[in-house]
Write a structure and sequence with these properties.
Radius of gyration: 38 Å
Shape: elongated
Strand content: 15-25%
Order of helices and strands: EEEEEHHEHEHEHEHEHEHHEHHEEHEHE
Number of domains: 3
Structural class: alpha/beta
CATH superfamily of the largest domain: Reverse transcriptase/Diguanylate cyclase domain
CATH architecture of the largest domain: 2-Layer Sandwich
CATH class of the largest domain: Alpha Beta
């Protein structure tokens, strides 16, 4: 409903605004309660489309009436607020802008309208692949589709269509049935057979009107079909409908992907130690059980190494917990970087770590343990304070399945017992027997 007019006929807050090009090249505001059809000297009036939340001008230029430009209206209040804001942002006088906009019949210059429309946002245009071996049909479909804003890609035969489906990733395919090399049914079957292109909608465009042909198109995977000669409105309606379905499908796939990524992040958090980024105690126990089960079936060996940082409590008390945390991370990084991909390093708890070595004999595990001991002892750990004669050292205990134990709990207990022996014997040692 239109609001009442104020004194002197000025527009009230809810009056509407219609803008037409004048012969002087300016845009004048008029009240939309009156109808104006202004003649203009321009043979090609400019079209303006602005998607701003404050200003929405959408001009529909009609070739049959070259001298007229019809536009949708917006409220004067919203137009004034948005225009004055842009005027100020662009560096022009706020007073000048206010004076120009206070009077509804004041001329708004073309350059100002151009500045306003420069803020509009581009919307994504759907890509449609048109496949037909008849040039006239391709041109007609291209004209119909581009007239409503679609981007059109053309292919003249089935082979070219299959190549462009992969290369251009269209949002929809308009596919003729009778073509050289591959007919439309074969092309549609190949498109739907590939995982990457399976969700691309296909509309079969055909002069074949028999029920059997439509059934064959459906069995080939076609999502819809249009009979020749086709009606423009029917064609565009079917295209729009399938594009809407594909958009919803793409949105659903994006949400599913987000959920899968979130699920994977949660899984990683559930099995990872927050301080060292090694596997945590829970995952270590699960993995060890799996390795022992696999080894028992394949009659192989699995070795476990328990590791403890020597005098870590004294280190914490002397240098503080932040330094202790940094040392734990540094040792964890050394362990992780010096094992095979089939092995795992985990934080058992506190300053204790474990290595699970698949398909590894006791002799080989002892060699690995000695290598780790020397690596930690000789590492300078730059940026961290050192103690114990200027070195950081570790003690290690080794146990092997099935020689030392036949289940995970006993294997852990044996490795831990040998770690305790190493500490009792002076630390910085490997005990495997």
């Amino acid at each position: 409903m239109m609001a009442a007019r104020g004194v002197g006929g000025e527009l009230m807050s809810h009056d509407r605004l219609a803008v037409f090009p004048s012969s002087r090249g300016h845009y004048k505001p008029f009240k939309s309660s009156e109808i104006y059809e202004l003649e203009t000297q321009r043979s090609q009036p400019e079209c303006i489309a602005n998607t701003s939340p404050y200003l929405q001008l959408e001009f529909d230029y009609r070739p049959a009436c070259r001298s007229q430009t019809l536009c949708h209206a917006v409220t004067w209040q919203r137009f004034a607020v948005h225009a004055k804001t842009l005027w100020r942002v662009r560096g022009f006088s706020s007073r000048r802008g206010s004076e120009a906009l206070r009077k509804p019949n004041a001329a708004i210059s073309l350059w100002f309208i151009r500045m306003v429309t420069a803020t509009s946002k581009e919307t994504r245009k759907n890509k449609i692949l048109v496949v037909d071996d008849v040039a006239v049909n391709v041109q007609l479909l291209t004209t119909y589709l581009t007239s409503v804003g679609y981007n059109v890609i053309a292919a003249r035969d089935g082979q070219e269509a299959l190549e462009k489906v992969v290369a251009c990733n269209p949002d929809l395919v308009l596919l003729d049935v009778m073509m050289p090399k591959f007919n439309g049914f074969e092309v549609c079957e190949r498109i739907k057979a590939e995982e990457a292109t399976r969700i691309v909608p296909v509309i079969m465009v055909t002069a074949l009107n028999e029920i059997e042909d439509k059934i064959k198109a459906t069995e080939a995977g076609a999502d819809d079909f249009v009979s020749k000669p086709f009606n423009k409105l029917e064609l565009l309606t079917r295209v729009k409908s399938l594009l809407r379905i594909k958009e919803l499908h793409d949105q659903l796939n994006a949400k599913v992907k987000e959920l899968e990524e979130a699920q994977e992040r949660l899984r990683q958090l559930a099995i990872t130690d927050g301080l060292t980024s090694l596997f945590n105690h829970r995952y270590f126990k699960e993995h060890l059980e799996q390795e022992l089960y696999r080894a028992s079936r394949q009659h192989t060996e699995v070795s476990l190494i328990m590791i403890d940082i020597d005098f870590f409590k004294r280190y914490n008390d002397t240098f503080g917990h932040p330094a202790g945390d940094a040392l734990l991370r540094a040792v964890a990084r050394l362990l992780k970087e010096n094992i095979r991909k089939i092995d795992i390093a985990a934080r058992y708890g506190g300053e204790e770590f474990t290595l699970v070595l698949a398909d590894t004999t006791k002799a080989a595990a002892s060699t690995v343990a000695e290598k780790m001991r020397r690596m930690v002892e000789t590492n300078p750990f730059e940026g961290l304070p050192s103690h114990n004669n200027g070195h950081i050292t570790i003690s290690l205990g080794v146990a092997t399945f099935p020689i030392d134990a036949t289940n995970s709990n006993d294997l852990i207990a044996m490795a831990d017992q040998r770690l305790y022996q190493a500490k009792q014997q002076g630390r910085n040692l490997v005990v495997a027997e």
